[in-house]
Specification:
This protein has about 160 residues and is α+β, with helices and mostly antiparallel strands. The chain has one domain. It is built from seven helices and four strands, in the order H-H-E-H-H-H-E-E-H-H-E. The strands form two sheets. A two-stranded antiparallel sheet has the order 1-4. About 5% of the residues are buried.
Length: about 160
């Protein structure tokens, strides 16, 4: 069994045992989401976070950095080349705003790369440069999941894994 497979099996065994089997912790977690005004509906349809290895996490970080770097280069190229900028079909006001120097080297100071984990494969599914609140939202969700009772119990064992919700 793989390292991730072992972690998943251990976590499943944990939430299928007392005191987690009655799901009171899951209700409390959903209540925390509402208290923190994160959502009026259930956020996660599953009771287990996604597990990835340190190696997968490092590869994900490297790929995200490369992708953000490429996006930044394309933004600079488009603004420097009127023909490329014209192909973007910006409205006059958008073109004017695009020409404003933000005062720092990157056009976007925050960005969110949504990822999907499917059968152990991580893929970027979208990029949101206009949703800085999403970064904070994701951090708040991660903190709440990280501090949930079964995850706290799970963390007592050194699995050498990084988990992401």
């Amino acid at each position: 069994m793989t390292q991730v497979g072992e972690a998943i099996a251990r976590y499943h065994k944990l939430i299928e045992s007392e005191p987690y089997i009655d799901l009171a912790w899951a209700k409390a977690l959903q209540d925390k989401f509402k208290t923190e005004k994160l959502s009026g509906r259930p956020i996660s349809p599953v009771l287990r976070p996604h597990f990835i290895t340190n190696r997968q996490y490092a590869a994900l970080v490297k790929a995200a950095e490369s992708l953000f770097s490429a996006i930044n280069r394309v933004e600079h190229l488009a603004l420097a080349n009127p023909a490329l900028l014209a192909r973007m079909q910006l409205l006059p006001a958008e073109r004017m705003l695009a020409q404003v120097d933000p005062g720092y080297s990157f056009f976007s100071v925050t960005g969110l790369l949504d990822t999907a984990l499917n059968n152990g494969s991580l893929q970027f599914v979208s990029h949101n440069a206009d949703a800085p609140a999403g970064v904070v939202y994701g951090d708040m969700l991660a903190d709440l999941f990280y501090d949930s009772p079964p995850v706290k119990e799970f963390r007592k064992i050194d699995w050498m894994l990084i988990w992401r919700t």
